[in-house]
Amino acid sequence: MDDSAMKITQESWAMVEKEVPHWPEIFYDQMFADPSVAKLFPFSSGNFKENPKFQEHTQKVKDTMHTAMTSIKEFDKLRPVLYKMGQRHVAYGTLPEHSTNFKNAFLFTLKAGYGDKWNEDLDDAWNQCVDALLDPFTEGVSDAMAEQADQAE
After folding, report:
1. Is 47 helix (H, G, I), strand (E, B) or coil?
2. Alpha carbon distance 97, 94 (integer Å)
3. pTM
4. What angle do the packed helices 52-70 and 75-89 form, to 10 degrees?
5. SS3 content of the chain, % helix, strand, coil (to 5)
6. How far apart are CA 112 and CA 129, in angstroms?
7. 46 has pLDDT over 90
8. Which end of the chain has fewer CB atoms < 10 Å from its terminal CB, N or C?
9. Using CA atoms, how far apart are residues 127 and 85, in angstroms rounded to an integer?
10. For residues 128-150, average pLDDT
């Protein structure tokens, strides 16, 4: 991710947190549109937004994204944290291909939050950012799955 994208995403994330506090609801609406992802979340059926487990989970996601976005300039420190997070998510059934769903849902959420203010610079910067965040996460998922397969043999 280049410096310009880093600056744009960090500044625009502050706007998302302030102006779109319900962003996780938009995000999970998109995530749960994929049944292979929805089944990973025990609270995904029915009116999931009212489920206390969903509310607890979204607070964790908000906190994680806040930490990631305020630490993005120190990506070398963030990378191992994301890698380990990917490894842990294998226990929940996460697969490497779920990263595409995450990216699409997250970008949709940002575009919805920005509305008419969404532009090419934001799109480019956020694509770079999400790719940078997902790369170590997905690597962690893949490595943990390979380790599980080796142990099963």
Report:
1. coil
2. 8
3. 0.91
4. 150
5. 80, 0, 20
6. 18
7. no
8. C
9. 20
10. 96
Rounded CA separation 110/114 (Å):
6
Interatomic CA distance for residues 136 and 35, integer angstroms: 24
pLDDT tens figures, 93-106: 999 999 999 999 99
CA pair distance 24, 13, nearest whole angstrom: 13
Residue written as token pair 């790719």 = 131
pLDDT at 29 over 90: yes
Q: What are the tokens at 37?
A: 């992802």
Residue 57's identity, in one-letter code, is H
Specify the DSSP class assigned to residue 94: -
* Tokens, residue 83: 């890698």
Residues in contact with 107: Cβ distance below 8 Å, sequence separation at least 6, in sequence order? 123, 126, 127, 130
Q: At residue 152, does pLDDT exceed 90? A: no
End-to-end CA distance of the chain: 38
